[in-house]
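[INFO] parsing input record for Pyrimidine/purine nucleoside phosphorylase
[DEBUG] input buffer:
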Amino acid sequence: MSELTQVTVIKTANIYFDGLVTSRTVICADGSRKTLGIMQPGEFEFNTQAAEVMEILSGELTVQLPGEDGWRSVQGGESFAVPANAKFTMRVARLTDYCCSFLP
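[DEBUG] output buffer:
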């Protein structure tokens, strides 16, 4: 899906890692929540509360997911899922545009 319709956008930015990762929260008409953001090159460790699907719109990174020993390459047009209450690490190779969907 290339666009979101009938949404509420929270204007205040989510800013992480001294501004290298930023996003805006979007609340859909059905109450589901997403974030749309940009990641600059670097290595970032995140903790989740809710399960999520990270869709990479453009860019390139590797991710180490919970329970996996190695790193998985992900690029524009691909996605990966992260379970709730987990920690994962991303190594962003170049400017990356993403959409994160939080699962119920």
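[INFO] The domain at 7-102 is CATH 2.60.120.10 (Jelly Rolls).
[INFO] shutting down worker
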